[in-house]
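Changelog note: in this version the structure field was regenerated for every chain. One regenerated record is shown below for reference.
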Amino acid sequence: MAVLLEVLRQELSRLGWVEGKNIAFEYQFAVGERNGFSALSTVLVRLKLDLNVAAGEPAATRVR
């Protein structure tokens, strides 16, 4: 997961989006907790984020 996050940060930086300057990341993990995705998605909705990025199944199918 750390490798994916680093690639995302690098590519966004290449496009002019720099963490702490003009973009902020909110990291949430539900590793190994199939039932935790429902609670996690509720948290993400409350944060009113502009973009959610989910990696892997079942996260990508549950966090929308």
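Spot check on this record: The radius of gyration is 13 Å. The chain is about 45% helix and 0% strand.
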